[in-house]
Amino acid sequence: MSSVSEWFPSDGIVERLVGRLTEDTLPQVVVLPSERRDGIDLYSEADLGALKVCVKPDFTVDFLDGADDRRFLAEYSADVALAIAVGVASNISSAGLLGLANYVIERIRVARAGGTLADDAILEVRIAKIEKNDTDTRIEGVQINARAEEIAKILLETLGGVDKSRKLIREVDDI
Predict the structure, then answer these.
(1) In angstroms, what CA-CA distances link 129 with 27, 45, 138?
(2) Closest C-alpha among 145, 148, 166, 170 to residue 157
(3) What band does 55 get if pLDDT is binned at 50, 70 and 90?
(4) Distance CA 92, CA 83 (A)
(5) What is the pLDDT of residues 122-164, one digit of tens each?
């Protein structure tokens, strides 16, 4: 039921991510548009409260686009109950991985509390891993489809490797 696959952010998302990276204005987690239609990157309605779920004061989350540039999609895919798209640094620390996992879990809690997410629903988490060196910036995307109870473990294994995920999974909040 669960799957991990490659994901390719749109050229527009990549360009804006590189711009924010160059300006040094990227937070630890950047909320990305989760859908592209007619050449326009769109956030899901579930993203409206994305910044409110950040409960740790030392963990920063922000939208890729400023308030005036954000466009929201009012409908959902029939196959996916909750789509979350985020960007993180490829060299994310253990604390950052833990913060990201807890952030995704909190987004799930909020969706369930609001009645928009059934317990057995399949979630879609897209992650743009941003890597910058002296000469180049590279963005690699991954998409995880899984049930809520599996998402943190799969996310940690995908971004941090199996050994690191085994240590961190005990510190992840329960859903």
Answers:
(1) 13, 23, 8
(2) 166
(3) low
(4) 22
(5) 888 999 988 887 788 888 899 999 988 898 889 989 888 888 8
Q: How far is CA 16 from the centre of its chain?
A: 16
Provide the residue type at 119 as one letter. D
Residue % of the chain over a pLDDT of 90: 23
Q: What's at 15, amino acid-wise?
A: E
Token digits for 105? 């879990």
Structure tokens at 3: 């799957």
Give the pLDDT of residue 78: 46
Distances (CA, A) of 48 to 31, 53, 69: 10, 10, 14
**Amino acid letter for position 58:** D
Query: Any residues with CB less than 8 A from the CB of 6 and at least 6 apart, and which?
Result: 141, 142, 143
Tokens of 139: 């963005």
Tokens of residue 75, six digits:
């409908």
DSSP string, 139-170: EEEEEEEEEHHHHHHHHHHHHH-HHHHHHHGG
CA atoms of 52 and 7, how far apart (whole Å): 26
CA distance 96 to 29: 9
